[in-house]
């Protein structure tokens, strides 16, 4: 699964009402809890997962 697909899945699960721990369990540890909670913070602030590339 590519990074963008994982991001879209996390966004969809969040919009369906899942919390961070529930999303982590659904993905079976595919990405870390820390990353999920970082993405959820971005979703809450902007409505999307905004990732920055290297400078």
TrEMBL record:
Protein name stated in the entry: Helix-turn-helix domain-containing protein
């Amino acid at each position: 699964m590519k990074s963008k697909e994982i991001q879209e899945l996390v966004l969809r699960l969040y919009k369906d009402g899942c919390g961070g721990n529930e999303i982590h369990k659904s993905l079976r540890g595919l990405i870390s809890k820390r990353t999920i909670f970082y993405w959820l913070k971005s979703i809450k602030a902007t409505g999307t997962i905004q990732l920055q590339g290297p400078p």
